[in-house]
Design goal:
The chain is α/β, with parallel strands linked by helices and 223 residues long. It has helices at 11-27, 33-41, 73-83, 100-106, 119-131, 168-172; strands at residues 62-63, 69-70, 90-94, 111-116, 137-141, 154-159, 174-184, 191-198, 203-211. It has a single domain (8-211), classed as Rossmann fold (3-Layer(aba) Sandwich). The radius of gyration is 17 Å and the shape is globular.
Length: 223
């Protein structure tokens, strides 16, 4: 299959890459039909810029601005699946990054608040959300480790950076019956993806799989 002018993909080649993309998700355990539909609707290629744009449909993490990464699609899918988002839920995402994860959550939830410490990332993601008419996403530049007390409590919280322990302020902002998915562990070691469910009497913790994420850092970034 040939590429179009100036190295751009033909529509047939793009369709084939997207088909392989969805097959890879299923083969790695993303089986929830709502999550797969959301990931089919949201084109990862729009969230990967520059040198790595031609690798957007591969199941691998890729570098983005501010020293951050866009997570590999299968991990995005598995985290979203574990979150068990309902159509009426309000979701907090800590770590906007490229905006890809928030865009997928926007297909599943009533309202998504996404927070990042880097103003450049929230600005670029916000611009992309507006172009895609994703009107149920609110993008905020803030220290995500403190959550968003003014908007709490949340039905679901997704953290896309690793903390040494599930952050206390985020646990407090989770509704009873709510779910938080967060990578936990030292930044220089293998981390574990943890699913936290808030019960009437406390919190239940379930370890899902080993992962590797950038560390959750307090304060605002310099970019």
């Amino acid at each position: 299959m040939t590429q179009g002018p100036e190295g751009k993909l033909t529509s047939e080649e793009l369709a084939e890459r997207k088909m392989r993309f969805l097959f890879a998700l299923r083969s790695r355990g993303v089986t929830d039909s709502r999550v797969l539909t959301a990931m089919e609707k949201v084109d990862r290629g729009l969230f990967v810029r520059g040198t790595f744009a031609d690798r957007a449909y591969e199941d691998m993490p890729l570098p983005i601005a501010c020293g951050q990464t866009i997570s590999q699609p299968s991990v995005v899918g598995l985290m979203t699946q574990a979150l068990q988002v309902n159509p009426r839920d309000t979701v907090l995402e800590v770590g906007t990054g490229s905006g890809y994860q928030a865009a997928i959550l926007s297909q599943l939830a009533r309202r998504v608040y996404t927070v990042d410490r880097y103003r450049r990332l929230t600005r670029e993601a916000g611009e992309l959300f507006r172009k895609l008419d994703l009107v149920n996403i609110t993008t905020i530049t803030a220290d995500g480790s403190h959550g968003l007390p003014d908007q709490a409590p949340f039905d679901r919280i997704l953290v896309t950076a690793a903390a040494e322990d599930p952050p206390g302020p985020l646990l407090e902002q989770l509704k009873p019956g709510g779910i938080m998915v967060v990578p936990v562990g030292q930044s220089d070691a293998v981390q574990a993806l943890i699913k936290v469910t808030r019960t009437q009497s406390g919190f239940d913790y379930e370890e899902l799989r080993p992962v590797r994420f950038v560390p959750l850092v307090e304060g605002l970034g310099s970019e």
